[in-house]
Design a protein that fits this description.
The structure holds two protein chains of two kinds.
Chain A: E1 7-9, H1 14-24, E2 28-31, H2 37-42, E3 50-53, E4 63-65, E5 69-73, H3 78-82, H4 85-90, H5 92-99, H6 104-109, H7 112-118, H8 126-131, E6 135-140, E7 143-148, H9 149-152, E8 153-155, E9 158-159, E10 166-173, E11 179-185, E12 195-204, E13 207-216, E14 223-224, H10 226-232, H11 239-246, H12 263-281
Parallel strand pairs in A: 1-3, 2-3
Antiparallel strand pairs in A: 4-5, 5-10, 6-7, 6-10, 8-9, 11-12, 12-13, 13-14
Helix pairs in contact in A: 10-11, 11-12
Chain B: H1 21-26, E1 41-47, E2 53-59, H2 61-64, E3 69-74, E4 107-108, E5 114-120, H3 123-130, E6 134-139, H4 146-150, H5 152-155, E7 168-175, H6 176-179, H7 185-195, E8 197-208, E9 217-221, E10 227-231, H8 236-247, E11 254-257, H9 273-285, E12 289-292, H10 295-301, E13 305-316, E14 322-334, H11 343-349, E15 361-369, H12 383-401, H13 405-412, E16 421-422, E17 428-429, H14 434-445, H15 447-460, E18 464-474, H16 482-487, E19 496-502, E20 508-512, H17 521-533, E21 540-544, H18 561-587, E22 595-598, E23 601-604, E24 610-612, H19 613-622, E25 636-640, E26 649-659, E27 665-675, H20 682-701, E28 733-736, H21 754-771, H22 785-802
Parallel strand pairs in B: 1-12, 10-11, 14-15, 20-21, 27-28
Antiparallel strand pairs in B: 1-5, 2-4, 2-6, 3-5, 7-15, 8-13, 9-10, 9-12, 13-14, 16-17, 18-26, 19-20, 19-25, 22-23, 23-24, 26-27
The chains are: A alpha+beta, B alpha+beta.
The complex binds flavin-adenine dinucleotide.
Flavin-adenine dinucleotide (FAD) binds next to strand 2, helix 7 and strand 10 of chain A.
């Protein structure tokens, strides 16, 4: 289908982009890879008057080592992120989540920051960045600020970024030596997850020293399964412990009901998938 | 002139790459939407968001005054010249058939129906302005659920077309006792209840969307003496006929062209409101007009398929010999009776008895109108539904008796020595060998090993269980003998036409009335003609789809092109040879009786003398020296009306893994042995089988058109209507046995629908088999993980309760 008419701006610096956003306000929309935005425009679910393409801003692209963290620029494509050696070494969970995200075409166009800004509760990146305690650097007319992962996802398709702010980069603490696994449950390969579980686990001497578990599509935002994390820490990394801990995966969640499954089924899936994800992350 | 000197290798049986693929795959070809004409205008449709509503008023003023818009029309702006969408197959004399205007003026009957059109200089302007058309609707109660709609007469529920007073369209019945083809089914069931086995099941054939790759598109050019329509259709000839019959334009003034068409699967076997509206617009405006639908429109407005409730009762003796089958169907027509419409389930009536020697059979189908998208043919059309029903029942019978599902089938199927065999539905099967196909399939599949693995997994309580599903199917292909169609009140015949033109430079033009839309006719038909005439494959050009070139034809559906159209081609070629032989005898100064034709040459027996067919064509073109009274032409036509259907068959075996913790299913192995008679091109056959399998598997596992309580199509995009991709399939294990059809000279049977028809029950049988020991005896399609998991939970709860 054909989108409604719009103007197209392609700033080359962050300042220009921020200024353009400030100028056009509500009438403008940022476009990165366009993989989520274009379908929305083509189906005329939204009709912004101005598109601000952030794809030409050098400073938003790339991955860098920042000591105890990796910093991923907002417009770095999914493919670049998942094939990056630093990412694979220090935040393996992210690479694993991206391996099953959409298809190769989408992974080559869609961006890390675009996916997170879109804040689709079924998006594959929210749960991993939540589990790994990432920080989001955003820029707006008032300057820059950092938002903690726990505060970034606000609601269904909504982040805590203001309308005149844009995402610059995501800072993810290194989890070197941690095991990571993303367990995604779909009916067909190219699908958004019905439910998915992101698990990062550090084991020491046969016990679980630290554990982080994030859930995809179990609520209006990605959520942490804190009850599971608490039940795991300090316990032996055994099948039985993990099974019992995983039973609490859906506690406090509010999963959707749709053609792929109702809320109860999703709750059940969450515990099975959490068990599998943690087992794989802990290499039990 | 180039003449062929060397005897060509046999083309039939060769795995030629498809000659049409380069242009089809690159898209550098004449798709309808690629056509641009001088002064052409573009159309956007305004469609009803409501399933059932009265149109109170339409304000088109804002749209009409928007930039680049030339006109806005509603149904009220047209009279008779808009024509009507026709039903070509009233299945009973008293069928209730709603009038179907391409753009109704007063009331819409499904969400997606056209209520207004915007014509503009660009497609973008048309689309923008379409958003500005303001339609005032008064919502009416909508008939949505098939079962509820069927009983609305009694319950006072919503009626899809209130003026008709009922949702019931037609009741079509076949009874073997009445027809004299078998016994009384009620007697058989009563007897089995007393001393035998009776299996009763109700299955849901969910609604599917054909989802062809190229969205529908239509261009109409009113310039010139003949009005020309290009349409992405499977049926240019039928469209031409129907335009003439309903819009008052003489047929001789109409040219319909189906240029390259990107798939159809039955979904483009339709005379569509979109075609009729664009036709009327071009005539009204006197300018070429184009409309290409969006994917969203395609999903909601192109016809859907399947959508039945099937109530089945099977009676058998305790040893597994089936004594009777009773079939009671409810079929959802949607809002209108489409071109074939209620005929789709009726085609299934002949297939429920499948490959078996059932002594008694009763079939009744009630077609029902609802306020949903209309339904019609979708790959297999009636036969997949029937095959699903009976093959699920045969597995259930085997489970009830505690025997292997292949054993039950063997006990009941027609032995290869029993052909020709007249079935309880009254068809005469000419040939087949179910034993051979099944034996080969079992061997390729590793049946015994997989059964052993299944046992091991059950014994060890593996969370991932294994199931094996069987489907031994047959289908009726080669639609269709005209007399049979006549006896079923179908509005046309089932013949096909072909012409062979010998060009002066040695190449050959072949014209077929079977209008291809991705099947590979150009390649396969070239192979047939190359062999028959002894000319190189490359020298044959196959033309189709344009009523000015392929003037006669009945198009492509029902696996008919090769079986019916191919036979016409053979006959036309033979006429060319017969004419050329006279010329050869004359030029070689020999008696006709001494001329032998082989490998493209006419030779005088016992001499070294001869001429190639190309040389004869050149001589006939010059016409300097022909026998007296001979027309200077070798060109020949043939119109072939089949005497019987053809009956491909096969044995499909499927192994599915079921994760009992999540309900997720995974295909482990799929083996099919298809007997499609003589294979013209193994590569094309493999392609048809692969694609067919995936579509059938998709019905079992993934696809379903779902409506909400308001009548909105929820699965209205490919995010929610789950089409599989290559990533979701496995490497299929294909095999063939060859039992040639006896009703056409090539021995072909048709392969376009086999995979789709056979695979759905094989997959569902395998899923059920994997968890049957847990108490599950059915899973509704598509077998989503949630449904499988819930079936396991429900069975466990029942077992627990009964303990
Ligand atoms: C066929 C298909 C399948 C898919 N499957 C999956 C899947 O399985 N799992 C999954 O997680 N995703 C999936 N996606 C979505 C994919 O991940 C997209 O790449 C991603 O959601 C959007 O990234 P983008 O760069 O294309 O963003 P865009 O589409 O350009 O933008 C998306 C939204 O984010 C905003 N935005 C973009 N960049 C910024 C920024 N720097 N600052 C502020 N706002 C910004 C835009 O304004 C817009 O609202 C799929 C997409 C497609 C087309």
């Amino acid at each position: 289908m054909i989108p409604a008419d719009f103007d197209y701006l392609a700033p080359t610096t962050l300042d220009e982009a921020v200024a353009a956003l400030a100028e056009h306000g509500d009438d403008a929309k940022i476009i990165a890879g366009g993989q989520s935005l274009l379908p929305v425009l083509r189906m005329r679910l939204n009709a912004p008057e101005v598109l601000i393409d952030v794809g030409r801003i050098e400073a938003l692209r790339g991955i860098r080592d920042d000591g105890d963290a990796l910093v991923i620029g907002a417009t770095t494509t999914h493919h670049t992120v998942s094939s990056d050696p630093l990412v694979r070494e220090h935040v393996a969970l992210i690479a694993k989540a991206i391996e099953h995200l959409a298809d190769a075409q989408v992974r080559h166009r869609g961006t890390f920051g675009g996916a997170l800004s879109h804040a689709d509760p079924a998006g594959d990146l929210g749960a991993p960045v939540l589990a790994l305690g990432a920080e989001f650097l955003v820029a707006g007319p008032g300057g820059r600020r950092t938002i903690a992962a726990d505060d970034f996802f606000d609601d269904f398709f909504t982040t805590s970024m203001a309308d005149d702010e844009l995402l610059v980069e995501v800072r993810i603490p290194k989890h070197t030596g941690w095991g990571g696994h993303y367990e995604k449950f779909v009916r067909v390969a190219h699908q958004w997850p019905i439910v998915a579980v992101a698990a990062a686990v550090r084991t020491a001497g046969g016990a679980i020293a630290e554990a982080r578990v994030g859930l995809t599509n179990m609520d209006v935002t990605p959520v942490r399964a804190r009850a599971v994390e608490e039940a795991l820490v300090g316990m032996p990394a055994s099948e039985e412990v993990i099974r019992q801990a995983a039973a609490a995966a859906a506690d406090g969640t509010n999963p959707p009901t749709d053609l792929n499954g109702d809320a109860d089924y999703r709750r059940h899936l969450a515990s099975v998938l959490t068990r599998r994800a943690v087992l794989a992350a802990a290499e039990v | 002139m180039t003449a062929v000197e060397e005897a060509p290798v046999a083309e039939i049986g060769r795995d030629r790459r498809r000659k049409e693929d380069q242009r089809l795959i690159t898209g550098r070809t004449r798709w309808t939407d690629n056509i641009t004409l001088p002064g052409m205008l573009h159309v956007a449709m305004v469609r009803s968001p409501f399933a059932h509503a009265r149109i109170v008023g339409i304000d088109t003023s804002e749209a009409a005054s928007s930039p680049n818009v030339t006109a806005v029309f509603t149904g009220a702006d047209f009279g008779e010249e808009l024509g009507a969408c026709i039903n070509a197959w009233p299945i009973t004399p008293d069928q209730v058939t709603p009038a179907h205007s391409p753009m109704p003026a007063d009331r819409v009957a499904f969400a997606g129906e056209i209520v207004a059109v915007v014509v503009a200089r660009t497609a973008t302007a048309a689309r923008d302005a379409a958003e500005l058309v303001d339609v005032d609707y008064e919502e009416l109660p909508a008939a949505l659920d098939l079962k509820e709609a069927a009983t609305a007469d009694e319950t006072g529920g919503p009626i899809a077309h209130p003026d008709l007073g009922t949702n019931k369209s037609a009741l079509w019945v076949f009874d073997s006792a009445d027809a004299g083809t078998g016994g009384d089914v009620e007697e058989a069931i009563a007897k089995a209840r007393a001393d035998g086995v009776v299996i009763e099941r109700e299955f849901r054939q969910q609604r599917l969307i054909p989802a062809f790759m190229e969205p529908r598109s239509v261009v109409v050019d009113p310039t010139g003496e003949q009005l020309t329509m290009w349409s992405a259709t499977q049926i240019p000839h039928i469209v031409r006929f129907a335009l003439a019959a309903t819009t008052g334009v003489p047929e001789s003034k109409i040219r319909v062209i189906a240029p390259d068409v990107g798939g159809g699967f039955g979904g483009k076997l339709q005379t569509t409101p979109e075609e009729w509206v664009v036709w009327a617009l071009a005539r009204r405006l006197g300018k070429p007009v184009k409309y290409t639908e969006t994917r969203s429109e395609s999903l909601v407005a192109g016809h859907h398929g399947r959508d039945q409730w099937q109530k089945l009762t099977l009676s058998a003796e305790k040893d597994g010999t089936v004594t009777g089958l009773k079939v009671e169907l409810l079929a959802d027509l949607g809002a209108y009776v489409a071109v074939v419409g209620g005929g789709v389930p009726v085609l299934g009536a002949f297939m429920f008895n499948a490959i078996y020697k059932f002594p008694a059979y009763h079939f009744a189908c009630q077609t029902v109108l609802t306020n949903k998208t209309w339904t019609d043919a979708y790959r297999g059309a009636g036969r997949p539904e029937a095959t699903f029903g009976i093959e699920r029942m045969m597995d259930e019978l085997a489970a009830e008796l505690g025997v292997d599902p292949l054993e039950v089938r063997e006990k009941n199927w027609i032995g290869h020595e029993e052909f020709p065999f007249t079935t309880v539905a009254g068809l005469e099967y000419d040939s087949g060998n179910y034993e051979a196909a099944t034996a080969l399939a079992k061997e390729k599949f590793g049946y015994a090993e997989l059964r052993a693995e299944q046992r091991r997994r059950r014994e060890s309580g593996d969370p991932v269980q294994l199931g094996i599903g069987v489907s031994t199917f047959t289908e009726m292909c080669g639609l269709a003998p005209s007399r049979v169609l006549g006896s079923l009140d179908y509005g046309a015949g089932g013949w096909e036409h072909a012409s062979v033109r010998m060009l002066a430079t040695g190449t050959v033009e072949v014209i077929t009335g079977a209008s291809a839309h991705g099947q590979g006719h150009e390649t396969a038909f070239s192979q047939i003609v190359a062999d028959r005439l002894g000319v190189p494959f490359e020298a044959v050009e196959v033309l189709h789809g344009d009523t000015q070139i392929a003037a006669k034809g009945l198009d492509t559906y029902g696996s008919r092109s090769l079986v019916v159209g191919g036979e016409a081609l053979v006959r036309a070629s033979d006429k060319v040879i017969a004419k050329a032989k006279l010329v050869a005898a004359h030029l070689l100064e020999a008696s006709v009786d001494d001329i032998e034709f082989s490998a493209g040459r006419f030779n005088v027996r016992g001499t070294g003398q001869g001429m190639a067919i190309g040389e004869i064509a050149a001589a006939v073109f010059a016409a300097h020296d022909l026998p007296d009274d001979m027309e200077p032409s070798l060109d020949s036509d043939a119109t072939y009306d089949p005497v019987n259907f053809s009956y491909p068959h096969g044995t499909h075996l499927c192994a599915m893994e079921v994760d009992t913790e999540t309900g997720a299913v995974r295909m482990r192995k799929y083996t099919c042995v298809d007997d499609v008679g003589t294979v013209i091109n193994p590569l094309i056959v493999a392609g048809q089988v692969h694609g067919g399998l995936v579509q059938g598997i998709a019905q079992a596992l993934w696809e379903e058109a779902v409506y909400d309580d308001a009548g909105t199509l929820v699965s209205g995009s490919f995010v929610d209507y789950l089409l599989p991709t290559a990533a979701d399939t496995i490497d299929f294990d294909l095999g063939h046995t060859v039992t040639p059809s006896l009703t056409n000279s090539l021995g072909t049977k048709g392969v376009g629908e086999a995979g789709t028809i056979a695979s759905t029950p094989a997959v569902v049988n395998a899923v059920v088999d994997a968890v049957r020991h847990l108490g599950v005896d059915d899973v509704r399609m598509p077998c989503t993980p949630q449904r499988v998991w819930q079936a396991i939970q429900a069975a466990a709860a029942t077992e627990g309760a009964s303990r």
